[in-house]
Amino acid sequence: MSATPASLPAALLGAFLTELRATFSDREPRGLYQPIDYILDLGGKRVRPLLALLAGRMYGDEDLRQAMPVALAVEVFHNFTLVHDDIMDDSPLRRGQATVHEKWDVNTGILSGDLMLIQAYAHLCRCPNAAALPGLLAAFNRVATGVCEGQQLDVDFETRSDVTVGEYLSMIERKTAVLLGGALEMGALAAGAGSVDAQHLYAFGRLTGLAFQLQDDLLDTFGDSQVTGKRTGNDIIRNKKTFLYLQASAALPPAESAELAALFASSPADPGPKVERVTELMVLAGTPRAVAELRDAYQAEAVAHLTAAGGDPAVKEVLLQLAEDLLQREA
Which N-terminal residues, if any, form the signal peptide (predicted)? Predict the structure, then answer.
């Protein structure tokens, strides 16, 4: 596949979507397979499979034969976690459409999700590079375990009032960042990259994922709803103890910190005044600056790992630009 660096992401995503839709199944029972096709067809940014394919291209996988099974595996696994997360959160919508358990039922969501996890392993095992398979499976198991651990920590934090900044960062690292890193690591391994380069790419993805989540938290509270398309202050309304809340709680004087805690223990019918006051307290605590500084520190460390990795310099530039786009977004 020939493409200029600027057009490479679109070309790779086009090839990926063709392969993904070829996996859609008319197998019976339809009540098991149709929900899988449904969630996979809902869209999304497809960042994880794109990272896997870019990593493969960095190490010479021009026709995508080696990295495509990895891309399919990480996308199916990611969507499996979304199906089960939506059940746990009782979420009615995913990407603007009914969630699987709402469109069908909870039992279907559980069982179809289980099959998606099995399918993810099946995709991974189709990698033509047989020598890479043990490393791929070990990396996938490590990443999948981390995602589950992160989800459990997120659930635990909902009922805890003593969550620390370090614990929160560990949670988002496992829940969000490790799969981004794993997609890059496994794409590189599938294409024959050495373990040192694969670990540099894993670190690049993991650190970029941490920076991405911090930016996401920042936009939730301080973003423009007309740009983000989301209600500003949703995390505040839900009393979600993100890095913003934890940093502000630690940085504010005792009286204001106690006020912040009281606000996060309330759920008023009209959340507007609560969101406004919490935002004021966060500004007083220097929270936007603190989030931006930590985000930028993570990204600087990520870039250092990407620089240290071998591989095609042109593809590395594409990865760098992709990371910058994720962090400079306003939506």
Answer: none
